[in-house]
Structures are given as structure tokens and as C-alpha cells.
Amino acid sequence: MLKKTLAISMLAMLGNAYAATPSDELIFKFMEVSNVKGALETMRANADTALRNNLLQSLQYQQLNDRQKKIAEEASEKVVRIQQENLSYDAIIKLVLPLYRRTFTQDELQAAINFYSSPAGKSINQKMPQLAAESMKLTNELNQKVIPQYQKIAQEAVERIKQAN
Questions:
Q1: Residue 88 belongs to a domain
Q2: With contact defined as beta carbons under 8 Å apart, do 59 and 75 qualify?
Q3: CA–CA separation, 8 vs 31, rounded Å?
Q4: In terms of CB atoms within 10 Å, which of 45, 58, 82, 109 comes out highest?
Q5: pLDDT digits (tens, 9 = 90+) for 44-61
């Protein structure tokens, strides 16, 4: 009976070792080989542009006089600066590190590191930032088309709400 209990305990420990929570060192290695930093920087740059454009469009920038445009531009720079502070690489890493620990096992991250270190993994990795940038550009173009529609609906709603008094 003691041997059976010992064997079961050892199997349970092996199972736990297999599903071990990855170390921060392994997570950082994965982030390095999978170019998480590059991807985040590309996404943030695109997000900065989108935020700036959306704010200026919501302020109807094209219809403003020069003095008003300067105010709108200052406001857009302020919101972008706030976004940059809150979406810095270090700030994002602090947020996602616990997610990586909960989501992946040590073995899964090691397998991903092995893949991203391979020629195929490196090739895919090099193409991902461009793919992300082009995807974001398409999304921004779509937003530029639909935001005026949203604004029109909102303005109509404001007018109807005022009339409902």
C-alpha cells in the first residue's frame, strides 16, 4: 500500500512539473524571440495615430479656424501623451506578465521559444509587424469612413433630445 501511495504521489508531482508555472525569465525569453516588444511598439504607434486622428475628427478639425486648430492639436498631443505613458512597454509587461503565468506552462513556452528560434519561426516573426501595421491601417481607414456616420447619429440624437424637453 505504501508503494502504491508513493507511486501515485510521484506521478502527481510529475504532472505538476509538466504544468509548472513558467518563470519570469522564460516569459521574457519568449517575449524576446517572438518580438513582443516590436509588435507592441508598432501597435502603440498606430494607436497613437488613430487616437490623434479620431480626436481631431471628433473636434471637426477641418472646419476650425487656425486658432481653434492649434487648441485641437494641443489636445490631441495631450491625449496621445497620456496613452503613451499608460501603454509603454514596461507598463504593458507589468500587466501581461501574470497573464502569461496563468495561461502558459513552462513546457508550452519552451516549445514556443523553440519554434520562434527556428528559421520558420523567425520568418513568421519578421512578417508579423508589417502584417499588424497593414491591418491597423485598414482598420483606421474603415474608422475614417464610419466615424462621421457615428457623429451624425450622435448629433441627431442630441438635437432630438433637446426637442424632447
A1: yes
A2: yes
A3: 36
A4: 109
A5: 888 899 899 999 998 998
Q: How far apart are CA 64 and CA 72, in angstroms?
A: 9
**pTM: predicted TM-score of the whole model, two decimal places:** 0.59
Residue 103 CB neighbour total at 10 angstroms: 11
Name residue, grid cell 501623451.
81
Return the residue matching grid coordinates 507592441.
40
For residues 57 and 148, the answer to whether their CB atoms sit within 8 Å is yes
pLDDT value of position 133: 79
Residue type, 141: E
Q: Is 10 within a domain?
A: no
Which grid cell is 109?
513556452
Q: Considering only CA atoms, which of 132, 135, 150, 139 is closest in space to residue 58?
A: 150
- The boundaries of the domain holding residue 112 are 20-163
